[in-house]
Structures are given as C-alpha cells and as structure tokens.
Design a protein that fits this description.
Blueprint (H helix, E strand, L loop, with lengths): L6 H62 L15 H12 L9 E6 L11 H12 L6 E7 L2 E11 L3 H7 L7 H7 L12 E10 H53 L14 H28 L1
Antiparallel strand pairs: 1-4, 2-3, 3-4
Helix pairs in contact: 1-2, 1-6, 6-7
Length: 301
Amino acid sequence: MLRNLKLGAKLNLLLLSIFIVIVFLSGLLISKILEKNAEQVVTDKAFLLIETMGAVRNYTSKQINPELAPRLETEDQFIPQTVPGYSAREVFEDLRTRPDYRDFFYKEATLNPTNLRDKADEFESKIVEEFRTNNKLKEKVGFRSLPGGDIFYIARPIAITEESCLRCHSTPEVAPKSQLATYGAQNGFNWQMNEIVGAKMVSVPASRVLERARQLQFVVISVLSVFLLIAVILINIFLRMTITNPLRNMALLAKKVSTGDMTVEFEHDSKDEIGVLAASLNRMKVSLQIAMNMIESESEN
C-alpha cells in the first residue's frame, strides 16, 4: 500500500506518525511530572496547615489552658476549650469553610484518647507506632485506601512536651472532676512525659491531587500539540516547496523529453541536491539530443 502512495503522502504520513508518538510519549512523561508537582503543592499546603495547627495547640496550652484550668474543678461539664487538640480542630473546621481548604481533613489520631472521637484506627495506629519506635522519623506522607476512595495523607507525631498535659492524662485521681464527669475514668490516662501518644494527620482525597495534575496535563499537552502541529505544517510546506513540487515538475518534463520534446528545460535555482539533479537531467537531455541528431545524420547518409 505504501509503495502506491505519492512522496508527499508518504512524508505527511511520516510526520503524522512522529507527531502522534511525540504527543503520546511526552504525555506519559508530563503526566508523571505533573502528578509529582501537584502532589508537592498539596503536600506544602498540608504541611502549612499542620504547622498552623501546631501553633494553635501551643497557644491553647500556654495561654488559654492556664486561664480556664481553675474552672475545671468547679464546672459540672468539662470545658473543651482548654484542650489544645479541640482548639486545633475548631480552627481547622473554620478553615474548611473556605473553598481552597474544603477538601482537607484534620485528625489527631491518638492511641488512648480521652474523647473516643480521636481514637486511631488500625492504619493510623501503625503510623503512630512507627513514630514511637523511630525517634528520627518526624513526618510521614503517603496514600491510603478507604471505601470512599483513596486519600493522600501527611502525618506528624504528637508528643507530650508540657507538664500541664499530665494533669488530665496521668491518672484519674489527679484529673479534673469535670473531665471525669464528661468522659469517665477509662480513657486517656497513663500518658508519660515526652511520650508519643498520637499523630496529627491532614488528609485530602487523592482525586484532588490527580485532578490538579490532569488539568495541568491538559493545558501542557494542548500547547505542545499546537506547536507540534504548526511544526508539521511548516515542515510540510518546506518539503513541498523544496522537494516534492520540484520533483513533480521534473517528472513531467522528463515525460515530455521521453516523447521527443527537446525544448523543455529543467530549471532549479538552488544549488542543493534537487538543483544538482536538475542540472544532470539537462545534461542528459543534451546528450540525448546529440545522440538523436547523430542517428538522424547516419540515416540520411
């Protein structure tokens, strides 16, 4: 089939094949690069959120808790505003009302929490145990699968660094009465100073990461395709003007010469290979004409 195609069609087919291969391979490479880039963007934003939550925890522990701590013994119900984790969650939930953060989630996954809402599941417990067994591990990033879809998470350890924390988490005997009245005496005790008890975890649906990558990929591939298409058109025009059209004209002139028309000239101004071919054809035509004249002379004699 290819043997029956004209040279211009073959060149266009070759250029189209190259165009498709370049777009396909570059699309795969760009997809991987943009996925990593989108993941890094989300990671940076998540790390900023974790740092912010850490600042909120410190503020609550050092400034809010001392002011409200005396009331824990007199109030009937526990005052959650004294808990750093509670303040961090409330601030984070307020952040989630903004469009840029609505898909982010925050949890202080704890092995033995006072409020069972913070209880670490099996996957989160393994991460906390990694932090407990490896003191050099300061953060962990990855994906996990859930029934609702994959999520991208970032985790950092929660360590007991303030003595004030042990008032509520050492033993039930020293815990505030309002805490016992609200949460009971079964959970959230026997914590030790400098012990890692949980992990601050920020998560976002993996589709959010992939969606951003796909958007960037579509834009980059579109721009690349446009430039490649322009390149193909320009190359096609160049080949048509410098190769296929001159060759077509030479083929037509050669056909006329073969029928005895010796008045035609193979004209090509450039000194490239096509020009050399045109000059050779002109010399061949002259040689042919001389040979024919000689034959006619011999016939007359």
